[in-house]
Amino acid sequence: MELDALYQEVILDHYKHPQHKGLLSTYDAQVHHVNPSCGDEITLNIALNNGSISSLSWDGVGCSISQASVSIMSDLVIGKSIDEARVILDNFVELMQSKGLKTGDPEILEDAVSLAGVSKFPARIKCALLGWMAYKDAVLSASTK
Amino acid sequence: MSELDVAKIRKDFPIFTRTIRDGKKLVYLDSGATSQKPQSVIDAEVNFYSKNNAAAHRGAHQLAEEATEAMESARQIVAEFLGGEVDEIVFTKSATESLNLLAYSYTSLITKDDSIVVTEMEHHANLIPWQQLAERTGATLKWFEVDTDGRLDLSSIDTVITEDTKIVALTHQSNVLGTINPLEAIVARAHEVGAVVILDACQSVPHMPMHVADLNIDFLAFSGHKAVGPTGVGVLWGRSELLEMLPPFLFGGSMIETVTMTSATWAPAPRKFEAGVPNMAQIVGLGAALNYLSTIGMEKIYRHEVKLGAYLIERLSSIEGLRIVGPHHMESRGGTVSFTFGDIHPHDLGQYLDAQGIAVRTGHHCAWPLTRKLGVAATTRASLYFYNDESDVDALIEGIIGAKKYFGRS
């Protein structure tokens, strides 16, 4: 059933046990993003060191898809270089826009491939992308400081 | 048992013959967003395009005459439905446009010394136009607050509506809470200080008998698509003397009396407010929609929804962890019920219900200040109409219980 493709165990796990949730007090940039269609919100703090993401923390409210997605994203990008993270981000955005036709590269996306089912539900793609777009914005903001 | 034969009524709505998500029966509980359409409304639009299509109020030919006649008959139907005069009915493309029309038309009549009053439970469509009017003119925006039961706090009525108040704009029935607002005291106070009362009746015109003269209000807006009519048509009703006094909002063809290269004068209302070729087929469809509702009977529709609403609230209240946001009893309340359910986010609940064929609305319902005030980021909303019955409520309850099991796994 398509619902099970959407709500995979790993998503519900991340929803119940979100990673890197709770804002750290030191950061280079802080961004706040909202999804105006449903009211979901996220605040994301990022710190960079030598072109790498040295820390990322976030807080927010939202559905399981948006919360799990930002949790998975945090795990993926922390410790990576900005360039490596950009490849992950591009892959994820492409997966979300695939209308259910792609499964995602587990080598690059790891747990994020569990969100592939979201691409079949047009109304939910924004939920999954909320945290990633906040990340993109935060990196830009921190790099241009 | 309801006075309405819901099974028979549902046969008038072709959409109920289709299935949802792999063969599930459609349980449509989102009429607060938009209603479904009976065949007679669909036919009215098709007939107009097939037989009478031409530009109304223009042209010297038979089709133009028929199109004009079809559109003006619909205006007559709307006037009778609301208990107003024919010339008091302005067709717009939506209730949102009706409210914006008023907010723009009032610009030159409002000054920085005036105040505009709204409520905390307004849909964005009846909040932002007034915020913007206040910003354009320097007027003060004031509002009635909402209490924890989802009712307007009128204890401060004399300090909210004051001598400088020119406009009081409020919803008749909240699209989130289902609360039906008491108008009598508000209208009396507004008129006492010389303010006009503008009623957003999107959630009441489709659901209960309405008579503008009895309500003693000055303007009323509603949309066709929530009243089993087509999208693309809204109505603004206004007292004739006020429509006559107000300047137009949109300028263009057919709203004029005379035009020179440097000036123009306006046609009398309602034409003054209807620039451009109107949405004729949709207006004709709206006429068919209101005729359909009248045939069923607005009193019966109202009683059916109150009874079904009571059943919905009773069943929802029996679910552990479910919190109804808004009044818990049916006094001064319609069949729209918003709720939260434990730690299951409304978006996830709505998605699960959808997989069972159940259509609900989730989110802030275009009333963000209200949901923020009530301390909920989002809610799930079930909104009833006369084509719903107890089986729809039962399906929803079963769905909610199923969602708890589904998301509680692992």
UniProtKB/TrEMBL annotation, chain A:
GO terms for biological process: iron-sulfur cluster assembly. Pfam families: NifU_N. Gene3D superfamilies: 3.90.1010.10. GO terms for molecular function: iron ion binding; iron-sulfur cluster binding. Residues 7-127 form the NIF system FeS cluster assembly NifU N-terminal domain. PANTHER family: IRON-SULFUR CLUSTER ASSEMBLY ENZYME NIFU HOMOLOG. This is Unannotated protein. It comes from freshwater metagenome. The lineage of its organism: unclassified sequences, metagenomes, ecological metagenomes.
Automatic annotation (TrEMBL), chain B:
Its EC number is 2.8.1.7. Keywords: Pyridoxal phosphate, Transferase. The keyword Nucleus does not apply. GO terms for molecular function: cysteine desulfurase activity; pyridoxal phosphate binding. Pfam families: Aminotran_5 (PF00266). Its cofactor is pyridoxal 5'-phosphate. It is an enzyme of class 2 (transferase). InterPro entries: Aminotrans_V_dom, Aminotrans_V_PyrdxlP_BS, Cys_dSase_SufS, Cysteine_dSase, PyrdxlP-dep_Trfase, PyrdxlP-dep_Trfase_major, PyrdxlP-dep_Trfase_small. One of its GO terms (biological process) is cysteine metabolic process. It catalyses: (sulfur carrier)-H + L-cysteine = (sulfur carrier)-SH + L-alanine. Residues 27-396 form the Aminotransferase class V domain. The keyword Transferase applies. Belongs to the class-V pyridoxal-phosphate-dependent aminotransferase family. Csd subfamily. This is cysteine desulfurase. It comes from freshwater metagenome.
